């Protein structure tokens, strides 16, 4: 499968955002205040009202989303959402917490978990998140600008699960977060867990 750009109009919104504006080939998405994806763990609440622009993600496919954002408030976030249903989903990308942007993922199978690592040097720069779906695995990678891909999570996703994927953003604590999404594409999955 050759890499193919996905037109924004080919995908459908899960929870439309406060505003969407086409700017050349980019898409400017403004999140609603209080929007998020989370299930139960530690916080005790369920949120399923984040914004995601989704298209089909069959097995043996990879999806990539590129974006730039000025994250300033606690839990500002954007990246790539992979969704089966309200209890089975994975969000991967950048989230602002502890005063810096963090690269991380929330993997949800009934309840959510959360892994993250600080990447202050990526602040305000172009980021691409890639998810490769192969067998029962979803391999998550990221890169800043044209830097090398780095794997940051290997998660399970049932081979028979009907999944969709695409860009997402949430603003749990404020209004006015606008994310510039710069690319959305599908391609063949990575052929190895460890890229040389």
From TrEMBL:
Listed transmembrane segments: none
A Pfam family the protein falls into: DUF1349
InterPro entries to which the protein is assigned, alphabetical: ConA-like_dom_sf, DUF1349, UCP022704
Entry protein name: DUF1349 domain-containing protein
Organism: Kribbella amoyensis
């Amino acid at each position: 499968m050759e890499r193919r750009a996905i037109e924004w109009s080919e995908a459908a919104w899960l929870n439309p955002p406060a505003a969407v504006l086409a700017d050349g080939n980019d898409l400017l998405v403004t999140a609603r205040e209080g929007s998020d994806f989370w299930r139960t763990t530690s916080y005790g609440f369920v949120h399923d009202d984040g914004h995601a622009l989704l298209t089909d993600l069959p097995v043996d496919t990879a999806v990539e989303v590129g974006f730039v954002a000025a994250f300033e408030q606690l839990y500002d976030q954007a990246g790539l959402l992979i969704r089966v249903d309200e209890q089975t989903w994975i969000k991967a990308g950048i989230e602002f917490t502890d005063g810096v942007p963090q690269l991380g993922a929330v993997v949800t199978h009934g309840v959510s978990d959360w892994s993250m690592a600080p990447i202050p040097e990526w602040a305000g720069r172009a980021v691409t998140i890639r998810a490769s779906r192969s067998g029962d695995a979803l391999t998550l990678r990221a890169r800043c600008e044209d830097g090398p891909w780095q794997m940051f999570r290997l998660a399970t996703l049932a081979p028979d699960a009907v999944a969709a994927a695409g860009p997402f953003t949430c603003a749990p604590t404020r209004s006015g977060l606008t994310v510039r999404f710069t690319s959305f594409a599908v391609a063949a999955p990575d052929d190895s867990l460890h890229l040389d």
